[in-house]
Design brief:
By secondary structure, the protein is an alpha+beta fold. It has a single domain, classed as hypothetical protein PF0899 fold (2-Layer Sandwich), CATH 3.30.2320. It has two helices and six strands; from the N terminus they run H-E-H-E-E-E-E-E. The strands form two sheets. A three-stranded mixed sheet has the order 2-1-6, covered by helices on one side. Strands 4-3-5 form a three-stranded antiparallel sheet, with no helix packed on it. Strand 1, helix 2 and strand 2 form a beta-alpha-beta unit. Helix 1 packs across helix 2. The longest helix is centred in the first third of the chain and has 18 residues. The chain is elongated and about 55 Å long. The protein starts with a helix and ends with a strand. The model has no long low-confidence stretch (mean pLDDT 90). Bound molecules: zinc ion.
Length: 124
């Protein structure tokens, strides 16, 4: 799983950003994870916490928000959520990307693949 390397990258950004702001302490780290990123949110939280341990962000609250996938269909112009089945298997395999409106496979994923830091709250 690539949660470990991504979490270290997130921790790096958090520490660099808090240094830039001359923070004494990081209070909150808000992370956005797309459902299609295939990252396990609990794992990311765990590894980010571990990577930040014994730093000024060691006691920060890690908030993880899972973003539902959003697509744009080039065939019919549908724009919106991608239908995902509530199947436990879904979390391990990539869903088939099809437009929920016309069934076309010509869709672009607009949201849902990302993993990014949305917000960092620091104490200066
Ligand atoms: Zn369509």
């Amino acid at each position: 799983m690539h949660e470990v390397s991504i979490s270290h990258a997130i921790a790096d950004v958090v520490l660099k950003e808090s240094q830039k702001q001359e923070a004494q302490k990081v209070l909150l780290v808000d992370i956005e994870i797309g459902e299609l990123s295939l990252l396990n949110p609990e794992q990311v939280e765990f590894w980010v916490k571990l990577a930040l341990d014994k730093t000024i962000a060691g006691e920060a609250e890690i908030k993880i928000e899972v973003v539902k996938p959003e697509v744009l269909c080039t065939a019919c112009g549908y724009e919106g959520m991608l239908e995902t089945k509530d199947d436990p298997l879904y979390h391990f395999v990539l869903p088939v990307f099809k437009c929920p409106q016309c069934g076309s496979g010509e869709i672009t994923v607009k949201r849902g693949k990302e993993c990014k830091i949305k917000r960092i709250e620091v104490l200066t």
